[in-house]
Amino acid sequence: MKSKTFDTKKFLMNNVLYVIMIVIIITIAFISKGRFLSMRVMRDILNQSSVRVLVALGCMFVILSGQADLSGGRMVGLAAVVSGTLAQQQTYAIKFWPGLPELPVIVPVLVSILLGVAVGLCNGWIVAKLRVPAFLATLGVQMILFGANSLYINKAPNNSQPLGGILQSFKNLGSGNVAGINYIIIIAVVSAVLVHILLTKITMGKQIYAVGGNPEAAKVSGINVFKITLITYAIAGAFYGLAGCLECARTGSATSNYGLSYELDAIASCIVGGCSAGGGVGGVPGVFLGVVIFNVINYGLTFIGLSSYWQYVVKGLIIIAAIAIDVRKYDRKS
Known about the structure:
By secondary structure, this protein is mainly α. The chain has helices spanning 8-31, 39-64, 72-85, 106-128, 134-153, 168-175, 183-201, 203-213, 215-220, 225-251, 262-272, 284-303, 309-333, and strands at 177-178, 181-182.
């Protein structure tokens, strides 16, 4: 019986990005003389990663179905602002809605999620019913969301100021902890586990993979492609809404600029995490790891005093490399 030999070339092809990013992380740790690997820094990175994980999970659904979504970041911003205006103290001097009593924490959370679902359904309908290419459809929705959010936060008496006076009970969602683990980290991990179960154990998850892999074959096999498209965008919207709400809770404020470029980070994390740009391939563990690695690099570059502009350069190079590797893998399989 012939034993299998280790294929170094194949291993590097499948893991080259991880190898490169590990080298970057080791370099950052060396330059910072080990301070970058402290528990405090790791905890900060996990806190910052939590919101990004939620955005990436939503984005993953869309990518797995073979589509794209550029509206995620602006949806995060809109949800942050809307939840913030519903979670202000009654005594705050420039309360956004002066006549509104202090609401239970669950209200701004649910409103944010439902708002995200509504936008997601709108995205799905434009893509599936009007047959507008997903890239252009969600780019248009992105612009609408930013304009609507800017108009909303500009309403008197706020007049585009950063929101303040957020209830402590609401801020606890982003800063509170149990046994030393922040609620926001727990929410991200639980969400990741539930999504993994949905995609691997539930029929709908398998249908999403089927539609992303080959929509025509999925249609012939009896899968309602229109319905799956609506569902994937709606789920993505729900995650964007939840992420925006938690971002407001984490920072204790919100502006219309919240969520800027979050959708690009999410797409990059998904591709680096093993999701195919063509759809039908990918999973939660890779995406989760992709988000954490990107945040480690972002935080690390800032930690060693490198200009934040370099983050965009590094992200851009990684995205190009990830897509190039993904295309090459596809070509080899074909």
